[in-house]
Design goal:
CATH topology: L-amino peptidase D-ALA esterase/amidase
CATH superfamily: L-amino peptidase D-ALA esterase/amidase
Number of strands: 15
Number of helices: 7
CATH class: Alpha Beta
Number of domains: 1
Largest sheet: 9 strands, mixed
Helix content: 10-25%
Strand content: 15-25%
Length: 358
C-alpha cells in the first residue's frame, strides 16, 4: 500500500500572489471526500467555462461578462456532487465575518461574498452515501487557507476522486513567462478518461522531468490492470459519474471576457492530459482568475495594451501558458495521489517511473 500522506512538488496556484488555498478532508466513518477553497482577498476578476454533459455549479452566471459584479472573493471546489454545493455557504459566512464581499449597504458589514463553486461526484465512495461536504467543510477549508501551499494528491476536493480506474486527486502547477507574468493552475481530477497512456504506462502529458521510462515489470502490471478494467472485471460498483474541475490564474490584468477565454483555453490543457474528456458523464468546469488589483483603464495600460497587435500577442502568451499549466496540474494530481484499500494509485502500480524511487 502506498504512503497515505500527500506528496509535495514545486508549483502552486498561489505562486501568482494574492491567492490563498485551503483544504478540508474527511476520511473514515463513511467519509471519503473533501473541499478545497481558493480565496482572493478583496476580489479577483473571474470568468468560467463549463463543459461536459453533467456539470454541478453555483454562481456561474454572475461571471458572465455583461453582468454587474466584476470580482469574486472565493472559488469552491468540492466533492459531494450537487449536495456539496452547500460548502460554498460556509465560505460565504466566513468571509462575511471578515467583512469581505460585494458592498450592498451603508455599513461595511453589509456585504455579499461572491463565491462560485463547482463539484465532483464522489458520493458513497467512503461507504455512506449521505457522508458528504456541507457548509462546515467550506468554513473549515477557508480558515485553513494559506498564501503559500503545495499540498497535492489526496487532499481537499481530491480525496474521493478517481481517474481512469486509478486514484484521482488534486494537482497544481505554475510557470513564469519571460516578461515576468506568472500563470498557475489547480485541478481536481475525477475523470472517466485516463491521464495515463496505456501503451507507454506514462502520462499523456510528458512534460514531467522527474519521470523515467517504467521498468518492463511495472509497465506490464499497469497495462494488465488497465486492460482488466476495460474488460469489466474490476469496474467500481459506484456509478461512472465524473468531472474534472479547477482554476487557472495569472498576476496580469485581464477583463471578465478575457478571463472567460483564459478558462476556455485551459480546457485544451485538460484534453491534452486526460483522454477522453468532456463526455456526457463529465461536468468539466474551469474558472479563470486575474488577481491583479489594477483595472484596465486606458490611463493604466502599458503600450502593449494599446497596440492592437501587442494586446493579442500578450493574451496569446497567457492563454497558451494557462493550457500548459492546467495540463501539468491534471497530471500532477495523478502522480501525487495515494492508494485506498480498494483503488490503486499510479505510483503504486508503476514506482519505477519516479526518479525519487530506487
Amino acid at each position: 500500500m502506498a504512503d497515505s500522506r500527500s506528496v509535495h512538488y514545486s508549483g502552486s496556484l498561489t505562486d501568482v500572489g494574492a491567492i490563498k488555498v485551503g483544504h478540508f478532508s474527511r476520511t473514515g466513518n463513511g467519509y471519503l471526500t473533501g473541499t478545497t477553497v481558493v480565496l482572493t482577498g478583496q476580489g479577483a476578476v473571474a470568468g468560467v467555462d463549463v463543459r461536459g454533459g453533467g456539470p454541478g455549479t453555483r454562481e456561474t452566471d454572475v461571471l458572465r461578462p455583461e453582468n454587474l459584479v466584476q470580482r469574486v472573493h472565493g472559488i469552491v471546489l468540492t466533492g459531494g456532487s450537487a449536495y456539496g454545493l452547500g460548502a460554498a455557504q460556509g465560505v460565504m459566512e466566513e468571509l462575511e465575518d471578515q467583512h469581505v464581499g460585494y458592498p450592498v449597504g451603508e455599513s461595511p458589514q453589509w456585504v455579499v461574498p461572491i463565491v462560485p463553486a463547482a463539484v465532483i461526484f464522489d458520493l458513497g465512495r467512503g461507504g455512506n452515501f449521505r457522508m458528504r461536504p456541507d457548509a462546515s467543510f467550506g468554513r473549515r477549508a477557508a480558515k485553513r487557507a494559506h498564501s503559500h501551499t503545495d499540498h497535492m494528491g489526496t487532499v481537499g476536493a481530491g480525496v474521493g476522486a478517481r481517474s481512469g480506474g486509478l486514484r484521482g486527486g488534486l494537482g497544481m502547477a505554475s510557470m513564469t513567462l519571460a516578461d515576468g507574468a506568472i500563470v498557475s493552475a489547480l485541478a481536481v481530477v475525477n475523470s472517466i478518461g485516463s491521464v495515463i497512456n496505456p501503451e507507454t504506462a506514462l502520462p499523456w502529458d510528458l512534460n514531467q522531468g522527474r519521470l523515467h521510462k517504467p521498468s518492463a515489470i511495472d509497465r506490464r502490471r499497469l497495462i494488465k490492470y488497465l486492460s482488466s478494467l476495460q474488460q469489466g472485471n474490476k469496474m467500481p460498483a459506484s456509478p461512472s459519474l465524473n468531472t474534472t474541475i479547477g482554476v487557472v490564474a495569472t498576476n496580469q490584468s485581464l477583463t471578465k471576457s478575457e478571463c472567460k477565454k483564459f478558462a476556455s483555453v485551459a480546457h485544451d490543457g485538460l484534453a491534452r492530459a486526460i483522454r477522453p474528456a468532456h463526455l456526457m458523464n463529465d461536468g468539466d468546469t474551469i474558472f479563470g482568475l486575474s488577481v491583479a488589483q489594477g483595472d484596465l483603464t486606458l490611463e493604466a495600460r502599458e503600450p502593449a495594451f494599446i497596440d492592437p497587435h501587442g494586446r493579442p500577442a500578450f493574451l496569446n502568451a497567457i492563454l497558451a501558458a494557462g493550457a500548459q499549466v492546467f495540463s501539468r496540474a491534471c497530471t500532477e494530481a495523478i502522480l501525487t495521489a495515494t492508494s485506498t484499500k480498494n483503488l490503486p494509485c499510479y505510483r503504486e502500480l508503476c514506482p519505477s517511473a519516479f526518479s525519487d524511487m530506487p
